[in-house]
Specification:
Elements lengths: L27 H13 L3 H11 L4 E4 L1 H7 L7 E5 L3 H8 L5 E3 L7 E6 L2 E7 L1 E4 L8 E4 L3 H6 L9 E4 L3 E3 L4 H6 L2 E2 L5 H7 L2 H13 L2 E2 L1 H10 L8 H12 L4 H11 L2 H4 L19 H18 L6 H9 L4 H4 L1 E2 L5 E2 L3 H15 L4 H13 L13 H11 L3 H10 L6 H24 L11 H8 L5 H17 L4 H18 L3 H11 L1
Parallel strand pairs: 2-5, 10-11
Antiparallel strand pairs: 1-2, 1-8, 3-4, 4-5, 6-7, 8-9, 12-13
Helix pairs in contact: 1-3, 7-9, 8-10, 8-11, 13-14, 13-19, 14-17, 14-19, 16-17, 18-20, 18-22
């Protein structure tokens, strides 16, 4: 290999003993980035390249690590590709790697760890879906060029051969990266047919890397969006998660709607594009939801939060119940009564269909259900008991509810926006004050189930639950009580309960407990 130096530099020998081969049309930042990349591979990955070369096989760093290095982003894990089949890879790294795993071996991938560095090595391959199949057919290849050709986008079809450290870019990925342009190495129709999930990856990369899909990519994505139906819900979900956690999910969501992808993944989102009445008596629900998403992300940053999937999903989905609940009343008034209840149910159904974890589904559903609760606060007329209920109902989602509720204010009326912000400042202060007095998220009745049974002299049964709920409401209304006062309130409640039920409920309960 020629000993290529950057302009203005003298030829130099790297620690690995082989000079990097680099094209001369890099920007200063890209030169620095790829130099850093080469520096990071001098030891472990360079050594692995030499190991494969000695065994008569090719090895190259490929895809994300090369792209990210050129973007100046930190590289954590390394993806490599080789002409060696998996069993040969295992034989080559035996005794060298600190740990090896074969979870992806059916798809030609072997994972390993060496000196704290995690690497994945995949045999040159091509993969494609049959028209009605949910599983790709994998075929091994023999050429780095052909392996790069089958990759999703040109910016992911760049490589560095090892141990030579030759930069390989057969499809113009470097130029596309410079121009923030998203193209496929071959025809986009072929690429999307090989793996329809790449249609979603196109919008994810647009959001994640601030890249613009090329016209032919946009056209093919729109024409082939229905091919996503053959991709498993789990793979679609994983792409959606990456999109929602990107720096600009709004761009990705808008492209999903524009391309028709959302019709197959999140059909509730395009349905929010309601017609606006001529007098603008209600907002564009779709645009409002995207603005709430933007504002929630901004509040994340201000509050020092990490990108929060649950919060972002709730912001996007909080008004999906509006199309189903829209009603036109006299005077041209538009209402969306109980859209938060309907929306909570819809969000749970959609996230379940996408195979999201149960805790994520429950958390998003709770936030959607509660996002309107604050708007009954007015000018601070809520009693302490109402504030306790607000905090208790939110539970472990309280901090997210704070952010979502604030983000949901998209009015252009500055006076109204300032008033809403002051009101929410007030409710947060009151919650903090009450939290200092008692742990609101752990509020329980002053008497437990055993004590209720002893005081009322009854056994287990439905009445215990009714009594427990009565005491909980009493606790939320009045704050902590001592045991004697709580017991007296319980006895009074029980007498009233027996009178209202004609005495039958208590007798049946006591009889049940005596059996």
């Amino acid at each position: 290999m020629p000993n290529t130096a950057f302009p203005g530099e003298s030829p130099r020998e790297p620690a690995g003993g082989t000079a990097p081969t680099v094209p001369g049309d890099l920007t200063d930042q890209q030169r620095a980035a790829i130099t850093d990349l080469f520096g990071s591979i001098d030891s472990v990955v360079q050594e692995l390249g030499e190991l494969f070369s000695a065994g008569g096989h090719e090895l190259a760093m490929v895809g994300g690590p090369v792209r990210d290095a050129l973007l100046g982003r930190e590289v954590h894990d390394f993806d490599l590709t080789t002409d060696a089949v998996p069993q040969t890879i295992l034989a080559l790294v035996e005794g060298w790697a600190d740990a090896v795993w074969t979870v992806g071996i059916d798809f030609g991938t072997v994972g390993l760890r060496k000196d704290g560095l995690q690497l994945e090595i995949t045999t040159y391959r091509s993969e494609s879906y049959q028209p009605k199949s949910r599983k790709p057919e994998v075929h091994y290849g023999t050429s780095l060029h052909d392996d790069l050709l089958r990759r999703d986008f040109t910016v992911n079809a760049m490589a560095v051969r090892l141990p030579e450290r030759e930069f390989v870019d057969p499809f113009g990925g470097l130029a596309d990266l410079k121009d923030a342009r998203l193209r496929t190495p071959g025809l986009p129709e072929d690429s999307f047919s090989d793996d329809p999930l790449r249609i979603m990856r196109a919008v994810r990369f647009a959001a994640q890397l601030a890249m613009t899909p090329a016209p032919e990519v946009r056209e093919a994505a729109s024409a082939m969006a229905d091919r996503l139906a053959i991709v498993s819900a789990e793979r679609v979900r994983d792409e959606l998660v990456k999109l929602m956690l990107s720096r600009d999910p709004r761009t990705g969501v808008e492209l999903m709607v524009d391309f028709g992808i959302a019709d197959h993944v999140l059909p509730e989102i395009p349905r929010m594009r309601l017609e606006i009445d001529e007098h603008h008596r209600h907002k564009d629900v779709y645009d409002h939801s995207l603005t709430v998403l933007d504002q929630a992300i901004e509040l994340e940053r201000r509050r020092g939060m990490q990108p929060d999937l649950v919060l972002r999903l709730a912001a996007l989905l909080h008004d999906i119940g509006k199309p189903k609940t829209r009603a036109f009343e006299s005077g041209g008034r538009v209402t969306f009564h109980h859209h938060e209840v309907v929306g909570a149910s819809m969000s749970k159904s959609r996230l379940s269909a996408l195979r999201f974890p149960k805790d994520v589904i429950a958390a998003v559903g709770k936030l959607v259900a509660l996002h309107l609760r604050f708007h009954g606060y007015g000018k601070g007329e809520w009693t302490d008991s109402a504030v306790r209920r607000y905090a208790r109902d939110a539970g472990d989602q309280l901090q997210r509810l704070h952010v979502l509720t604030r983000a949901d204010c998209t009015t252009r009326n500055r006076r109204k926006a300032a008033a809403l912000a002051r009101a929410y400042d007030d409710i947060e202060r009151r919650i903090d004050r009450l939290a200092e007095e008692e742990e609101l998220n752990k509020v329980r009745p002053d008497l437990d189930g055993n004590e209720i049974q002893q005081i009322l002299d009854i056994g287990p049964g439905p009445m215990i639950g009714k009594a427990w709920r009565f005491l909980l409401e009493l606790r939320l209304e009045n704050g902590p009580m001592d045991k004697e006062a709580a017991a007296e309130e319980l006895r009074s409640w029980a007498r009233r309960h027996l009178e209202e039920s004609g005495g039958a409920g208590g007798g049946e309960q006591h009889a049940e407990g005596s059996e």
